[in-house]
Design a protein that fits this description.
The complex is a heterodimer.
Chain A lengths: L27 E2 L4 E4 L3 H5 L3 H5 L5 E8 L7 E7 L3 H11 L3 E3 L5 E4 L2 E6 L2 E7 L4 H17 L24 E3 L2 H7 L16 E8 L2 E9 L3 H15 L7 E3 L2 E7 L6 E8 L2 H14 L4
Chain B lengths: L16 H7 L13 E7 L12 H16 L4 H8 L6 E4 L10 H13 L7 E4 L7 H4 L3 E11 L3 E3 L1 H4 L12 H4 L2 H4 L9 E12 L18 E5 L2 H20 L11 H7 L11 E7 L7
Parallel strand pairs in B: 1-8, 2-3, 2-4, 4-6
Antiparallel strand pairs in B: 1-7, 4-5, 6-7
Helix pairs in contact in B: 2-3, 2-4, 9-10
The chains are: A alpha+beta, B alpha/beta.
């Protein structure tokens, strides 16, 4: 596949590109790209803007491309995030379809390419999904990726997840309780006390004995960590300390030694043994990747 | 409202038990025992063409048949005359979301029936984003609330309950906890007691969301239905069950609607906008029955 004709007129070395590609695979901009901030994003994608605000988006550069006759439009959205951690997080929350080789991590499915690079999250969506549009989506995505600065790092918290049985594409980095609730429903209360200063990583596990979910959260101080442990115990462990069996599996938690103010929470584990093993392995990793 | 015993201001407040059945003119002997809110599900296979476009004539017929069944009237015109009076000023709250808007043909059908019921043509308007400044909406005495059902990345579902969010100056004030407080909007003077009808469009509902624009056509399907009721919660709750069933069927496993659309249940329990549990809903099914998923 060629992307001849793709031209990025100007590049931002630190932030958003000043312009999106001028052409890719026969698709050309149908209007000047628009910029939105964390307030005006609602004008563009209505209440869905909350997802991007939950990761602290600062700016969105949005472009619409018209294709050859008979083809639908393609929409490119470049979100600038506070850091690569949030960019990775947004990608991890959003991935659907198959893995793709664009930026620092990508997925492609249902006409949408999503990827992250540096402190940017990018989505390229074909409004009419067909082979030609898919080719253009990939061409546009690669052109945008080429214009973005790299150097992003996956948040260190992700490396604290034990490796055995971890489903890699289940890993989600998050900073908002509702993002957690989207992936594992824990109820309205922010039981884990998550927020911009208390990020977490979630991973799903499949082992011989069944499945389970592990969440590792990092708190700004010992009091916040203690409050989360107590809140979780009250809500899911009948106020006790050991693994507690609920209707949908075992729940358990453990403040991780040598890991600052990090706490591991096991949700819906298939067995007590699995819950305890996940906690023990997370503790053994301590604060180290 | 003369002739029906319906107190307009109390229309939304009368969701319970025999009171609701009486006020809405429902013969309890015809309904499910103990039902507290009637919801009509009407489906027609022929309403959609191969590209998912709705036939205006069939759609209009569906609307009228559903409204007649909702109010227990054989003549749909009589049902509409119970919903609105000639003295009313009627806002039709639509939804213009580009990927799955309220079908213009359905907007037109509602407008036609409202005018046929005696409301002046200048006293009827259709709007979405402009409801706070639309002159007709500013003097509105009655509201018909109509929108398509879809999944939503922040509220779980885009519902009739959520469709009124454009009546408040800062919609994001109601985004907390997956839009849990949406029911509070229905208590505001702009719309409290004014909503006469909720129509949840289930022609090509969306059961899963992808990407910033939350839409991918493969996650819609030709259901060919409308859900109609006077109270928003039972209409939305019924739609939510259909979406959940479709997700189970499509993904081959229980994949709960995420985030959970708990604004529906909360609107019922906290704000009195109708029952959400199946046992509190009398579901009347009309038309095409195959693969109804409920």
């Amino acid at each position: 596949m060629t992307i001849l004709g793709v031209l990025v007129t100007a590049l931002g070395t630190l932030g958003l590109p000043q312009a999106l590609p001028a052409e890719a695979a026969g698709w050309r901009p149908s209007a000047p790209a628009a910029r939105y901030d964390a307030e005006s994003i609602f004008q563009y994608i209505d209440g869905l803007g909350e997802v991007y605000r939950a990761y602290g988006m600062t700016t969105c550069l949005a472009g619409r491309y018209a294709g050859p006759p008979g083809e639908g439009d393609i929409v490119v959205d470049v979100f600038e995030m506070p850091s690569s951690a949030e960019a990775f997080g947004l990608f991890s929350h959003s991935r659907e379809g198959e893995a793709a080789d664009v930026g620092q991590g990508a997925s492609f499915g249902y006409g949408t390419l999503a990827f992250w690079k540096g402190r940017h999250f990018v989505s390229v969506t074909a409004e009419q999904d067909d082979p030609r549009a898919r080719e253009a989506v990939m061409a546009l995505g690669r052109a945008v990726a080429a214009a973005l600065p790299g150097g992003g790092e996956v948040p260190a918290l992700v490396a604290r997840l034990p490796a055995e049985g971890l489903l890699p594409r289940s890993v989600v980095y998050l900073l908002h309780p509702q993002i957690l609730n989207t992936h594992v429903q824990l109820g309205s209360q922010n039981v884990l006390g998550l927020g911009p200063t208390a990020p977490a990583v979630l991973g799903r596990y499949e082992r011989g004995g069944g499945g389970g979910v592990l969440v590792i959260a990092e708190y700004p101080g010992p009091e916040a960590a203690k409050a989360a442990v107590l809140g979780f115990a009250e809500r899911f462990q009948a106020g006790g300390r050991g693994a507690w069996r609920s209707e949908d599996g075992y729940y358990a938690s453990l403040a991780l030694p040598g890991a600052g103010n990090a706490v591991a929470f096991v949700l819906r584990a298939a067995s007590r043994e699995m819950a305890e093993a996940l906690l023990a392995e997370a503790a053994a990793k301590g604060g180290q990747p | 409202m003369s002739g029906s015993g319906l107190d307009r201001r109390g229309f939304l407040q009368v969701g319970a038990g025999a009171a609701a059945a009486g006020v809405l003119g429902l013969d309890r002997a015809e309904g499910a025992k103990g039902a507290t809110a009637r919801v009509v599900l009407i489906r027609r296979r022929e309403v959609l063409d191969a590209d998912g476009r709705a036939d205006p004539v069939v759609l209009h017929d569906m609307l009228n048949e559903a409204v007649g069944a909702l109010l227990g009237e054989k003549d749909p015109a009589a049902a509409w005359r119970r919903l609105v009076q000639p003295s009313d000023v009627v806002g039709i709250k639509s939804n213009v979301w580009e990927h799955l808007p309220t079908p213009p043909a359905l907007e037109q059908a509602i407008r036609d029936e409202v005018v046929r019921a005696g409301v002046g043509a200048r006293d009827v308007a259709v709007d979405d984003r402009g409801v706070r400044t639309n002159p007709v909406f500013l003097r509105m005495t009655a509201l018909v609330n109509v929108r398509p059902m879809r999944t939503h990345a922040w509220s779980g579902l885009g519902t009739c309950l959520k469709n009124v969010i454009m009546f408040v100056p800062t919609p994001s004030d109601y985004h907390e906890d997956a839009c849990a407080p949406l029911g509070a909007i229905w208590q505001k003077p702009e719309i409290a007691g004014k909503v006469r009808l909720n129509v949840l469009v289930m022609l090509t509902p969306q059961f899963h969301s992808v990407g910033p624009h939350s839409f991918a056509k493969p996650f819609t399907w030709p259901y060919g239905g409308l859900l109609v009721g006077t109270l928003p919660v039972p209409v939305d709750a019924t739609g939510a069950r259909i979406i959940q069933a479709k997700r189970r069927l499509h993904f081959g496993e229980d994949r709960p609607i995420s985030p959970p659309p708990h604004h529906i249940e909360i609107a019922g329990s906290r704000y009195g906008l109708g029952p959400s549990a199946p046992e509190g809903i009398e579901l009347v099914r009309l038309g095409w029955g195959a693969d109804a998923l409920i």
